[in-house]
TrEMBL record:
This is Ribosomal protein S12. It comes from the Eukaryota. The keyword Ribosomal protein applies. With S4 and S5 plays an important role in translational accuracy. Located at the interface of the 30S and 50S subunits. The keyword Ribosomal protein applies. One of its GO terms (biological process) is translation. It holds the Pfam family Ribosom_S12_S23. GO terms for cellular component: small ribosomal subunit. Part of the 30S ribosomal subunit. One of its GO terms (molecular function) is structural constituent of ribosome. It comes from Lupinus luteus.
């Protein structure tokens, strides 16, 4: 716990909230299909990681 003098010198940091809407236009109503990248390693004899791209529906906030 900081002392009174430490609080005067530095103050307290506020928690910053992150914006959870999609990055495109910051519009939560927009839903669609977007690319999702994932890195996987192949099965046994091969070992190099590769990126796999798959199209998946982008989900917005809660559904009713």
């Amino acid at each position: 716990m900081p002392t009174f003098n430490q609080l005067i010198r530095h103050g307290r940091e506020e928690n910053r909230r992150t914006d959870r809407t999609r990055a495109s236009d910051q519009c939560p109503q927009k839903k669609g299909v977007g690319p999702r990248l994932s890195t996987r390693t192949p099965k046994k004899p091969n070992s190099a990681p590769y990126e796999r791209k798959s199209e998946s529906p982008i989900q917005s906030q809660k559904r009713h």
